[in-house]
Amino acid sequence: LGRAERAIDTYRQVLALDESDRVTLSALDRLYLDAGSWIELIWIYRRKIETSTEVDERRTLQRQVATVYEEKLGDRFEAIAAYNARIARDGLAGDHVRAFKASFKASTKS
């Protein structure tokens, strides 16, 4: 295994002990982003959302989930679902509404 893979394995073991460890979640966030491991990155974003007490942070993370689905995985329907989840959890915010509308408009053209 390469260094990144070993680091991921180690951080996953730490996360198994404490799923809310912010340092570990942030490290895995960077590693998965660098590796282009999009599904794993979404999982990390969702763990961060579940453990965050800050509305603005949750909004940002949910938008990142939607962006990964739309831009990296080409899945507009999952992107829309991510925006809907964010709205259901934390209400509306102007920038998220614009992004949601853009995704929805693009999905109806496909």
Whole-number mean pLDDT: 88
Straight-line N-to-C gap: 40 Å
For the biggest sheet, the summary is: none
Indicate the percent of residues in helices. Answer: over 70%
| Stretches with pLDDT under 50, minimum 5 residues | none
Tally of DSSP helical segments = 6
Query: How much strand content do the residues show?
Result: under 5%
Q: What is the tally of beta strands? A: 0
Report what the structure shows.
- Helix content is 84%, strand content 0%.
- The protein is built from 6 helices and no strands.
- Helix 2 (22-35) packs antiparallel against helix 3.
Characteristics of this structure?
mainly alpha; 110 residues; 6 helices; single chain
